[in-house]
Write a structure and sequence with these properties.
heterodimer, A: 114 residues, mainly beta, globular, B: 111 residues, six-stranded mixed β-sheet, five-stranded antiparallel β-sheet, 11 strands
């Protein structure tokens, strides 16, 4: 069974640039969530996708956007990067039809904005 | 607003010295309370889900318990490999499968 995989593992961008982060769900999972984790803090919910549609969003501005593809992989796009966007971005997937199933996380993408 | 507070922020124990981590929460209807373990540079690893007050779950040296206002993660006779950050999160009964996390407890077990 393949777990959640994310790419790239590390990324350095300049303020004002745009970035795309990628995630492959665990096999059979059709729900994907994205979280932002600042250093020393717990993860914060960005949004969730279920069957290619956004199914909930946290307190993040519209410059954070996402996509889910028919194969359940997902992208997180961030426009107009700010220094405070520097964080670990985590993708998580869960089992289809089981909304209470635990989230399984990837190892994240470490984004540094300079 | 749903909220989770974990204490202590950091805890150092000697190998074999048992202790407990606390997770206090407020949520508008609890669907589930989750415990995760996170190693440096890694994503959170699922440990337990608790659904109702009085429920307990165990895994090796870890036992999680739940009341209506808080959860405890008890660590019995810990080993150095138990060193990690332990995260607590709640999911509300309504809405998307959104987890609200605490800031974590950084646990260090000295040999």
């Amino acid at each position: 069974e393949t777990g959640v995989t994310q790419s790239p593992t590390h990324l350095i961008k300049t303020r004002g640039q745009q970035v795309t982060l990628r995630c492959s769900s665990q096999s059979g999972h059709n729900t994907v969530s994205w979280y932002q984790q600042a250093l020393g803090q717990g993860p914060q919910f960005i949004f969730q996708y279920y069957r290619e549609e956004e199914n909930g969003r946290g307190n993040f501005p519209p410059r954070f956007s996402g996509l889910q593809f028919p194969n359940y992989s997902s992208e997180l796009n961030v426009n107009a990067l700010e220094l405070d966007d520097s964080a670990l971005y985590l993708c998580a997937s869960s089992l289809p039809g089981q909304r209470d199933s635990p989230l399984h996380f990837g190892n994240g993408t470490r984004l540094t904005v300079t | 607003e749903d909220q989770v507070t974990q204490s202590p922020e950091a805890l150092r124990l000697q190998e074999g010295e048992s202790s407990s981590l606390n997770c206090s929460y407020t949520v508008s209807g609890l669907r589930g309370l989750f415990w995760y373990r996170q190693d440096p540079g890694k994503g959170p690893e699922f440990l337990f889900t608790l659904y109702s007050a009085g429920e307990e779950k165990e895994k090796e040296r870890l036992k999680a318990t739940l009341t209506k206002k808080e959860s405890f993660l008890h660590i019995t006779a810990p080993k150095p490999e138990d060193s990690a950050t332990y995260l607590c999160a709640v999911q509300a009964a309504q809405g998307a499968q959104k987890l609200v996390f605490g800031q974590g407890t950084r646990l260090t077990i000295n040999p």
